[in-house]
UniProtKB/TrEMBL annotation:
Reaction equation(s) it catalyzes: Cleavage of hydrophobic, N-terminal signal or leader sequences from secreted and periplasmic proteins
GO molecular function, one term: signal peptidase activity
Alphabetically ordered keywords of this record: Hydrolase, Membrane, Protease, Transmembrane, Transmembrane helix
Protein name in UniProt: Signal peptidase I
PANTHER family from the UniProt entry: SIGNAL PEPTIDASE I
Keyword Iron found: no
Subcellular location: Cell membrane; Membrane
Length: 186
């Protein structure tokens, strides 16, 4: 009987440790997210399931074209691509991204641009100064984000720049559905 109690206690202890580790990993390091909507098509499809790296920006700064998850409101998280970093001026003119007046290529949009009719731009023209906040440069600890499906995306053009404290983390791994498993690169 004593041996049975000891074995039972060992199982309970192992399960508690496993749940504790799961909680710590899920809370502080990695979390799943499901893509909801078409704003990141064709890169991400509605229903793609991904892993969010929650600690990456504790050890490194965000980079242009990182795909990030951020709190758009108290109830809703969005997933978008960083196109502007702190201290930069960002604009789009004639479907071309400019950062501090220099052209920046967006290879992830190339296929989509080739499929669009020539008279319909993928991204409408804008300047940072015209976006909510009216900034001349992106403030420190903020980024500018856009969806890859520029004609159907609620992003910094509507929301303004995103504070780094609103960013949940970076995501680049699609793990479901099985036929879409991949690590995304810019």
């Amino acid at each position: 009987m004593e041996k049975l109690k000891s074995e039972w206690f060992d199982w309970v202890k192992a399960l508690l440790i496993a749940f504790g580790l799961f909680f710590v990993i899920r809370t502080f390091f990695f979390a799943p997210i499901v893509v909801d909507g078409p704003s990141m098509m064709p890169t991400l499809q509605d229903g793609d399931q991904m892993i969010v790296n929650k600690f990456i920006y504790q050890i490194q700064d965000p980079e242009r074209f990182d795909i990030v998850v951020f709190h758009a409101s108290d109830r809703k998280d969005f997933i978008k691509r960083i196109v502007g970093l702190p201290g930069e001026n960002v604009a789009v003119e004639d479907d071309q991204l400019y950062v501090d007046g220099e052209k920046v290529g967006e290879s992830f949009l190339q296929e989509r641009k080739e499929k669009m009719p020539s008279y319909q731009p993928l991204t409408g023209d804008f300047q940072l100064e015209d976006l909510p906040g009216g900034y001349k440069k992106i403030p420190e600890n903020h980024v500018l984000v856009l969806g890859d499906n520029r004609n159907n995306s609620t992003d910094s053009r509507i929301l303004g720049v995103v504070s780094m404290d609103k960013i949940v983390g970076k995501t680049s791994l699609i793990y479901w559905p099985l036929d879409r498993i991949q690590i995304l690169h810019d």
